[in-house]
Structures are given as C-alpha cells and as structure tokens.
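> example.struct
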C-alpha cells in the first residue's frame, strides 16, 4: 500500500473510494457513511493504518465483508471497517509473512555439519593432518634441529 501510494496516490485513493462506496451500498450503511467526506476519511484512515497491506488485500477484505465473513453488529462505521481489516490482516497476511520470514531465516542460518565437512575434506585429500601433536610444555622453534629430525622420522614411518 505504501509503495502504491507513493507511485499512484490519486488512482489508489479513487479505487479504494469506489470500492468502499460499493461496499457501503451493499451492506446498507448509508446512514453511517452519508457524505463523500465520510468515505474519503475512511479511505485516508485505511491508507494510514494499514501501509503494509497490499491494495489487493484491502479489496479482498472488502469482498469478505460483503460476503458476510465478518460480523457487523448493527451499524457499519469507520471503526468497524478498520476492525474488519485488522481481523483480515491477523487471519491472512500475518501468518503468511511470519511463515515467509521463518523460511528466509532457516535459509540464512543453515547449520554446518562439521563432521561431514571434515570427512569430505579428508576423503578428497584436502585435509592435512598436523605434523605432530604437541603437549603444552613443548614449544617448537622454527629452525630447531630436533624438529627437523622428528619430521624426518615421521616421513620414514609413513613410507614404511
């Protein structure tokens, strides 16, 4: 609704006004919406209070009101209209948006199976094992002769 109002404000308001006028005639609410100003105020309220609804969703809510899916107790005022739109929003669009966001969240935060990754890398030969398992007391020096000897011994073990 908010994007449609920015791009074609007059056309959207005229469309909603025509559909609201049709709706008020259908539900016989000519006493509560007596003038064109009353209808325009109701359209302004809809645009202001439901910017996240699509225009098609507002028109579908109007259709549901005409079909009697929402209880209209006596008179059909702007407050009753807004309450029907709120109910429509809670029943239809909110669960859809929550489901969409949950699906996006699951896609974005997919878990990583570390054990499978290690196994795949090991199988492909891309995972190199460490040269030596060090204890906390031993700190190797970069050019230490004992370190070179240990490496040669490990290579000899691997060859045999």
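> example.seq
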């Amino acid at each position: 609704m908010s994007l449609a109002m920015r791009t074609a404000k007059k056309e959207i308001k005229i469309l909603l006004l025509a559909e609201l006028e049709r709706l008020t005639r259908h539900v016989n609410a000519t006493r509560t919406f007596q003038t064109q100003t009353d209808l325009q105020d109701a359209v302004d309220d809809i645009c202001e209070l439901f910017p996240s609804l699509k225009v098609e969703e507002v028109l579908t809510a109007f259709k549901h009101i005409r079909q009697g899916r929402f209880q209209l107790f006596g008179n059909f005022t702007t407050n009753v209209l807004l309450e029907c739109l709120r109910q429509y929003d809670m029943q239809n669009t909110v669960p859809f948006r929550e489901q969409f966001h949950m699906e996006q969240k699951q896609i974005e935060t997919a878990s990583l199976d570390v054990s499978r990754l290690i196994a795949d890398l090991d199988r492909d030969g891309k995972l190199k094992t460490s040269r030596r398992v060090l204890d906390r007391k031993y700190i190797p020096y970069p050019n230490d002769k004992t370190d070179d000897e240990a490496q040669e011994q490990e290579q000899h073990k691997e060859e045999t």
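> remarks
The chain is about 70% helix and 0% strand.
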